[in-house]
Every structure is written in structure tokens, then in C-alpha cells.
Amino acid sequence: DSKPFNMTLIHTNDLHARFDQFSRSGIDCTAADIANKTCYGGIARIKTITDKIRATEPNVYMLDAGDQFQGTMFYSYYKGNITAEFMNAFGYDAFSIGNHEFDDGPAHLAKFLRKLHVPALSSNIDTAAEPAMIGLVAPYVVLTKYNAKIGIVGYITQTTPDITATGPNLRFSDPIAPVQRAVDELHKLGVNRIICVSHNGYLDDQRVARGTKGVSLIVGGHSHSLLHNDNVTFPQAAGPYPTAVKNLDGETTYIVQAKMWGEWVGHISMGWDANNKLTHLNGEPIRMTMDIAQHKETQDIVNKWREPFDAMTKVVIGNSPVALPNGAPCKTRGCGLGYLMAESLRQSYTGSLGKDKTVIGFIQDGGLRAGLPQGAVTVGNVLSIQPFSNSQVEMPINGTALVDMLENCAAGTHKFNGRAVTAFCQYSGVRATADRSKPVFQRVSNVQIRDNNGNWAPVDPNTEYAMVCSDFIATGGDNIVPEVNRKLLVRQLLSDVLLDYVKKIKAVVVPDEVGFQLIN
């Protein structure tokens, strides 16, 4: 490391199987989107840009910060096979595993990692007790090219077991100590130019930067944060690109992230002097607009991948007079899409807990992976909203526990285990008011339940209700339910529940008032 070294870094994160271009809401582009030039991303545009950068700039490296899996029919149909093909072909140098890589369990992730020729990194996952994963994940890798050694350290959010299907054997720890351990090991190997690739979120990456030393740059993901220096054009930017943080040594560790879906590709120029001190680190993410040509051979491959599921997904099953977005509108209050999914669950009740039970439908905002466009509703729309292989379960819950659950959502913290609640409640068959100015666990009032005749009555603490939700929620996902229930019979896939419901009602109707009525 005794010679100065300059390099270019390309980075992506949270692609969520967006192989083809997409609309503003992350679903397939319509003719209108194309006419209005509001399609973005797609790996054919990423290929155009990466080829251009590699042809014109020195010493180019490429990193991905996780969540390649889940979000479109490309994943539902191919389950990661084409993800490995794409990442291998694009010449990524390293990849940090994201939480969604675990959505189909560790054995499925292992199968993907064996196909992937890119080092998969995570310093804070202990795989020792999970036979499927042993030897497939490294804490760090030393990249030796361009006559230089660059250490890349990976880490993931410690909340991963709460939000996906990691199984009982993997252990996830706070990243600070494992990252520092990896950096110290790299120093012993004579590697002093170190970059982290992280699937942990923008805010927590800042905490990791403050709590470690020896890291020049953290390339992040998970929080879908756009970092940009032009916050007039992009008022939604979460911070500057790069974001500078003082680390334990009083030096600067920089943080970057490139929103999500491949709408943006990160682009950094950086260098070190002969003493391994950063001389510069700057850049700007590149937006993958329609002004960037799609690389023809790559787009041909994407079109070919589409063929098997395209005909099936184009079948129209209903109509929605209004667009129902997912994402931000569903994260802090009741939203139309949340109500639609919750009501489809409520109406899917099989009577397993008793035919006369009053039924509640429940879904969390993170279980809604795409929005519903205005107009024709297709099979593809539904499969984009529910790409997971999660299933419907019917869970007994008494009035007291139901109110506790609503309090957990209103607080963002679990009343009994004290851990963060990592999603927001969307439901049907329940009405409630939440006052955020009140102390936690005393915010929810006026809880009413709709009985099977459509009449509303105050919740009864001792009555047992039937809650229809996903197996993910019932078994403790997102840390919402007061008490985990692993003994439930798994029924239909959630995608089938929603398909059946839309086919039945034909026209999607959502009441004006849904979910929590928020005050203060």
C-alpha cells in the first residue's frame, strides 16, 4: 500500500428483482409511462452506464449492498437463478447479503450463493449452527487488482431475524464489534484501504461509522435512502452524497447509498496517498432515466426472461378506480392498499376457530411490496403486491391482546419484549384512534370491532376474536404480535387470497377512513 492509489466505485443496492425498467411506483412501465418518459432503471441501462464508466475511468470496482431478491415476477418465477446470472455477468466485486435474501430460508439462499461467483459478505452473521450456510459467507474479502489491495467488509442489520425467514440457527449481532474485528484483521494482513458494504440502513450506518475506525467508506442499503447534494431538485434526499461522519479516530468515514430498484447507480471517485490517508472522495449518483440507452443484448436477455410469465400476468381480473400506492403512505397511517389486503384476509376466514367468531384482517406495511395502479388490475399487479411465499393463518386473539398489538404499532416498540416494532399495522374489521402525544402503550383508544352483521361495538377484553394474518406476523415477524404463535395451520398463499378477493369483488372499493385515526 506504499504507493498512492485512485479508484472509481460503482454501487447498487436494493434492486429487488427490478431487471426491467419500471414506473415511478416500481411496477411495469405502461405505454403512458413510456410516452411521459417516466420509466426508470432496468439492468440494460445499468449495463450501459457501467460499460461507459469502465471504458473512461481508472481502476473501477463494483459493489452491491444487498436485497437483490424479492419484489417482481422475475423473483417469484426464477427465485434468484437469474439474479446470480446477472451479478456474475456484470462483474460485481463483492456483495453484502440483505435481509430479503433470506425470504425463502437459508437453504434457498445457500443454493443462490453457490451459483454466485461474487464474494458474499457479512461480518455479523454467525453461520456456525446452520449447516446449509457454512463456508458460503465471509466477513471480508481482499480485492487484489490494479496492483492494489482493497479490503471489503460486509455487514447486515441486526433486525434481520425479526423481519425475514432466517430460521432458528443463524445468529445476527450488532455490527460494530464484528466490523472492527474484520478491519483489525485486515490491518494485520497489511491491507489498510478499507470499504464496508452494508445492508443496514442510512441512520445505523452513521452509528457504525462513529463506533469504528479504519473504514474510509460505507456503501449502504436497506433504508432505500436517496443521498444527493441537490436537495432542491430532490427534496426527498435523506442526506448529502457522500455523508461525512467523524469516526473513533477523529478521521472521516463517508457513507453512500443509491435509493432503490436501480433507479440510481452510485458513482464515487476516491483515492489514498502513500500513507493510506484519503486524498479525495466525491461523486454523484446517476439517475437511470430514459435518456440513458438500454444496452441491446442485455435488454434482449431480460425480454427473454419475461416470456414464461408475461402471458399469465397480463390476465385482467378486476378494476381499481384509484391508484393505491404502497410505501410511505402505509408506513405511518392506514392506507387503501393495506385495507384491501387486510379485508381480503378477513374474507378468506375458513371458520377454523368457530363459524360465529368475529373476524379481523391484518397485514403489516412491509407485506405490501408494490402499489396497485389505477384502472385494470392484472394477475401481475397482485403478484407484485404479494411476491412472498407467505401464507394465510387464522389466529385466536382476545380483546386485551388485540389492543396490546395496536399499542405496539402506535408506539413502534413492543410492550413486553422492549424491542423495536419494525412495521406499521394495516387492518380491517377494526377501528381505533391513536394519539401520538400520549405516553407509549397509552395511545390507542376507541377500539371498535365490526361483527359479522356489519355492526360496530367496543372491543371486549375477554372475547376471543379470529385474526387472519400472515404466518410471518403470527410467528413474530416485525415484532408486532404480543405473543408469538407457531402452532397455526398454514393455509393459502397471500397472493392467492388477494387474487380470489379481487376476482370476487371485480371493482376495488376502499372506504375513505381506514386504519388508525391519528391525532397529534
UniProtKB/TrEMBL annotation:
Positions of the 5'-Nucleotidase C-terminal domain: 316-480
Keywords attached to this entry: Hydrolase, Metal-binding, Nucleotide-binding, Signal
CDD domains, A to Z: MPP_CD73_N
Record InterPro entries: 5'-Nucleotdase_C, 5'-Nucleotdase_C_sf, 5'-Nucleotdase_CS, 5_nucleotidase/apyrase, Calcineurin-like_PHP, Metallo-depent_PP-like
BP-aspect Gene Ontology terms: nucleotide catabolic process
Domain Calcineurin-like phosphoesterase: 7-225
Protein family membership: Belongs to the 5'-nucleotidase family.
Protein name: Metallo-dependent phosphatase-like protein
Annotated source species: Catenaria anguillulae PL171
